[in-house]
Amino acid sequence: MTAWLVSDLHLPPKPSPLREGFLRWLAAAAQDARQVILLGDIFEAWVGDDLGIETYAEEVAALRRLSAAGIDLRFMVGNRDFLLGNGFCAATGARPLPDPCIVTLGGRPTLLSHGDQWCRDDAGYQRYRRVVHHAGVQRLFLRLPRALRQRIADRLRRQSRAVTATKPVTITDVSPQAIIEAFGHAGVDRIIHGHTHRPAVHHLTVDGRACERQVLPDWTPARMEGLRIAADGQRTPAPA
Ligand SMILES: [Mn+2]
């Protein structure tokens, strides 16, 4: 079955060409795909389903149309929209995927991940990640008033941008060792992930096996693109 994948749109909470692009992309997917997989950081900020569903009402409605049409709609959370929850699932008909997980795409078992867990050389980020993925921390956060959640998220985002700008580029990419381990552990020969904003197809050998790691592109107004994988395995860009 034909699958469409996309990640790292970082849709802002205000009107944007990216948001228009995503609506076009979903409309195109609806015409062609049997499965649509959102691979994280679709939304730049998601500080609870109550707020997110209002802020991104058009996107939620478009996703709902997709699943209502019988398309298998899946999502993995990223490091921006990791609070996508049951309310989002109910509103869109999307079903969550654990990170990482193996999905057969174009007949080929493929390890899917957002990718941030493999940026292991970035110790500061990994510490932050452990805290924000803690279920208790998330429960407490979601009990806070909306305005406060929004302010905390804005501050964290500003800090993250400032800190990332000072880090060497190799640190914010995936760790080669983490990738080798992931291939070995999953026993697959293909990984597809996002997060690093370094779109490419990398070829490598792991335990004597030819393996491939494809990084999805992040979205800019100049490049709004996902990946289409046909039933026969053929891969082509899926532009908005
Ligand atoms: Mn990310």
Describe this structure in words.
By secondary structure, the chain is of the alpha/beta class. It has one domain: Metallo-dependent phosphatases (Purple Acid Phosphatase, chain A, domain 2), CATH 3.60.21. The chain has eight helices and eleven strands. Strands 4-3-2-1-10-11 form a six-stranded mixed sheet, with helices on one face. The protein has a five-stranded mixed sheet with strand order 5-6-7-9-8, with helices on one face. Helix 1 (17-32) links the parallel strand 1 (3-6) and strand 2 (35-38). Helix 1 (17-32) runs parallel beside helix 3. The chain is globular and about 55 Å long. The model has no long low-confidence stretch (mean pLDDT 96). The site of manganese (II) ion has 7 residues, from loops.
